[in-house]
Fold:
Amino acid sequence: MNRDEQDLYRWWVHCVHNDSKDFLRLGIELEQSLIGYADLAFIDGNTAELGIAIGDRSIWGKGNGFNACVKMIDYASSYLGITTFTAETTESNIRAKKMLAKLGFKEVSRIGKEEYLGTDSQLIQYRL
Structure:
């Protein structure tokens, strides 16, 4: 995408202020800096899709995403009544696959493809 700085700013303001009953995004902070987000999408009854993004690659692999997912799952279970979580990642995203396994997610299907780090990769769907 070739958006200018103002377009990006307006997009992120929209994302932050968008009130949706089937979507929740919370920021992840480390040492008082915003490093990413965890979200729940497609919230429907007791089911939601878990998502996570950590921006700075230098802090990948240090447990920040895992810990944020644990907190989001705990929050969603306790306050939103979510009992079934889904997730999706690409075959080539080894870190995400390991994190989902550590969280207890099980692979349920392989449907679709998506570009990851410049290469088309098989999408994998998970359930917890």
User: Anything to note?
Assistant: The helical segments are 5-17, 64-80, 94-103.
